[in-house]
Amino acid sequence: MSAVTTCRQPLLLLLRPLKRTVSTPKFNKDARRPFSTTPTVQVTPRKLPRPTLLPGAAGVSDTFALPLLQNSPAAALIRRRDPFRTGVIARKKGMTALFDAKGTRTPCTILQIDRCQVMTNKTRQEHGYWAVQVGAGERNPKNVTKPMLGHFAVCETSPKQVVKEFRIRDERGLMKPGSLINANWFRKGQLVDLRANSKGKGFAGGMKRHGFSGQPASHGNSLMHRAMGSAGQSQGGGSRVLPGKRMAGRMGGERVTISLVKVLDVNNQLNTVVVKGCVPGPIDGIVTIQDARLSHPPGISTSYRKAMVNNPNKKEPKEGKKAAEATTAAAA
User: Fold this and answer.
1) What CATH number did the domain enclosing 82 receive?
2) For residues 282 and 304, what is the distance between their CA atoms, to the nearest angstrom?
3) pLDDT in tens, 299-329
4) Which residue windows does the record flag with biased composition (Basic and acidic residues) (predicted)?
């Protein structure tokens, strides 16, 4: 082999194009980013809700316990968080003040209960909700219609001037028709909700109704002192007035609810309940009082309260069972 051939072979090897093995990154179709064995973000799989099967379906018995649906009437009643007890109807007698041992003055309102009786009960099976109908006051039978006279006769009560319903949580708050509710239905220190109709002010301007400051009193302003002024433009350059715009209009005469009002005093002889602060409505106006929805129920010993505190599903001890059996045997 000549020296020329020996020299050409390394030159040919050098002139050949080199095949480079470039490692291209692998892509995950789901993530759409370079695949990595050490993920930086820990992703937890989403738990899909289990399908709810109706009784009578394939493989489901008629007595199968189904979960409570969120859009069912039963779930709606649970979300309402109604009080366990019924409320009462009272009249606003006026305001006064109470002084404590330190001399602190606390304004309060006196509410008097006038012959408040239970009329009837509303059950969920028949009416769709739990409620107690209560009546208060007295009314001349001549001024009562015959259907209402029949209703009062069935309830075994005299004709009442005011009749209202109070929503309750379940059947434990139902009461016997004709039961009289006095001021001792509440206790000192508990929280209640008050509902009444506010005073009607008639047609009022923007300054009285919404607290507007008004326009300037001088500097060229003529007869435009308490006027509202421009209402501003709407869509289309002022083609209409947006709903809810604060303007002059009818003021008051609306139902007002005051939550979490503290009871300062209870007088069962005068049948009065003294609450802290002011109460909407005029003097001698109708005010409803009920346990606060956003507070715990009061610790008043009643039959429904005992049933609520004691768990009916709790097993009775053996000694208690033996004593009960002995009592029934002795009675027999």
Assistant:
1) 2.40.30.10
2) 35
3) 764 444 443 333 434 444 455 555 556 555 5
4) 313-324
In a domain, 6, yes or no: no
Number of domains present in the structure of the chain: 1
Task: Pinpoint the alpha helices (H) of the chain.
Answer: 3-15, 73-80, 124-127, 146-155, 206-210, 235-238, 303-309, 318-331
Which residues are paired to 202 by β-bridges?
Answer: 251
Strands 105-113 and 116-122: unpaired
CA–CA gap between residue 119 and residue 160 (Å, rounded): 10
**Cα–Cα distance for residue pair 109/261, rounded to 1 Å:** 11
| CB distance 206 to 248 below 8 Å | yes
| C-alpha pair distances (Å), 105 with each of 102, 273, 280 | 9, 18, 21
Three-state DSSP state, 64: coil
Q: Coil, helix or strand for 264?
A: strand
Range of the domain at 97: 74-208+249-309
Would 226 be classed as within a structural domain? no
Residue 232 placed within a domain: no
pLDDT digits (tens, 9 = 90+) for 212-266: 999 999 999 888 999 988 887 777 666 778 888 899 999 999 999 999 999 999 9
Could you give the 3-state DSSP secondary structure of residue 144?
Answer: coil
Domain assignment present for 5? no
